[in-house]
Design goal:
Order of helices and strands: HHHHHHHHHHHEEHHH
Number of domains: 1
CATH topology: Hydantoin permease
Mean pLDDT: 86
Structural class: mainly alpha
Helix content: over 70%
Number of strands: 2
Largest sheet: 2 strands, antiparallel
């Protein structure tokens, strides 16, 4: 019998927080402008289909994570090469989220603070948590996922008088192409990045629970992003919303409830917790890839060297936030398509063919 790494409710919580938390600030999919809510609905439906592929991938080789499946399908040599490439991809994601944290802190709070101080403390805490495995992280998420949904409820209630439904009309005024691009962005980021959990978590569950975890977390994330994106457009309007770097943070500035004179603290807390979870998951996935390539006994001993290298990389990346955003939405999402959708589906097909040939 497989030993579950965490309770399945905690697994849902960590995936939901992983998906929607950073959306609370960065808000992917706004290429669709005022029709972003349509993109969210379509992306959620398409992502449910993608989850079917992920479920069948784990069902193909029970008790095996994504890296083990690669080795079993392609053999040791090709498998290690592909895992090494995935390791580079996971490392790149770790660096990108660290840059997210750096930009958010420098723009909203401490613009004169040295980079290493801005992100170094969070990075070290991530290493400390990852050394204890996925279980403590999941327990943290079970608490904070409630905060994330409380945040959108508070935001909607506090800004009720400032909302204007007319900002959502006319539907498809900008044509269908922006909606398609917004949908594509959302399918890749954040939905497609659930692939990380095929590496670090989901292999410990039976297929029925994997289905429940993936489908439930996808639907819950979709509901949150639909509510958040609709509130943003209704409060800020299409032009102002799409001009902001941190869109949801701009909305939070309008919140005034009692002691909360403007609600930036809610948005900042959501972002901090979400990026903490993302960095931790990406770091674990990167370390597991390195462990598999070099046949190490444990991934935990290499967490610190990897995060230190990642901290060095944030000094040599983007000149500005604008160039960073251009990279994410004009370059990253297209090569991420290969890693998150095309290659996993190819592995699934190759694995099915391999098993069928064995049976024959």
């Amino acid at each position: 019998m497989k030993k579950e790494l965490v309770d399945y409710k905690e697994a849902i919580a960590i995936i939901v927080l992983f998906e929607v938390g950073e959306f609370s600030i960065l808000a992917s999919g706004f290429s669709a402008k005022k029709d972003v809510w349509i993109s969210v609905i379509i992306a959620t439906i398409l992502s449910l289909i993608l989850m079917v592929a992920y479920v069948n991938l784990l069902k193909l080789y029970p008790n095996s994570n994504f890296l083990d499946i690669i080795m079993k399908v392609f053999g040791k040599r090709i498998g290690k090469l592909l895992i090494a490439i995935y390791g580079v991809y996971c490392f790149d994601l770790t660096v990108l989220v660290l840059i997210d944290v750096l930009h958010f802190i420098s723009v909203t709070s401490f613009d004169k603070t040295p980079r290493i101080l801005s992100v170094g403390l969070m990075a070290i805490v991530c290493v400390w948590v990852c050394r204890r495995g996925i279980n403590p992280l999941a327990k943290i998420c079970r608490v904070f996922v409630i905060f994330i949904y409380a945040y959108i409820i508070i935001t909607a209630i506090a800004l009720l008088q400032e909302t204007d439904v007319q900002n959502l009309r006319p539907i498809l005024n900008n044509g269908i192409k922006p909606v398609i691009k917004g949908t594509f962005e959302l399918v890749i980021y954040p939905y497609g990045e659930i692939l990380m959990f095929l590496i670090v978590l989901l292999h410990s569950y039976k297929t029925k629970k994997v289905k429940k975890i993936l489908y439930t977390s996808t639907l819950l994330s979709g509901v949150y992003m639909l509510a958040m994106s609709s509130v943003i457009i209704m409060v800020l309007g299409e032009n102002y919303a799409t001009s902001l770097t941190f869109i949801s943070y701009g909305v939070a500035k309008h919140i005034e409830i009692g002691f909360l004179k403007r609600g930036e603290i809610l948005a900042a807390t959501s972002f901090t917790v979400a990026t903490f979870v993302k960095i931790s998951v990406y770091l674990m996935a990167t370390s597991m890839c390195v462990q598999k390539v070099f046949d190490l006994r444990s991934y935990k001993k290499i967490l610190l060297p990897i995060i230190l290298i990642a901290l060095m990389f944030i000094y040599f990346n983007f000149e500005s936030i604008m160039s960073y955003n251009e990279y994410i939405f004009e370059i990253y999402i297209y090569y991420a398509l290969l890693f998150l959708i095309i290659v996993p589906i190819f592995i699934l097909v190759a694995g099915l063919i391999r098993k069928r040939l064995k049976r024959e």
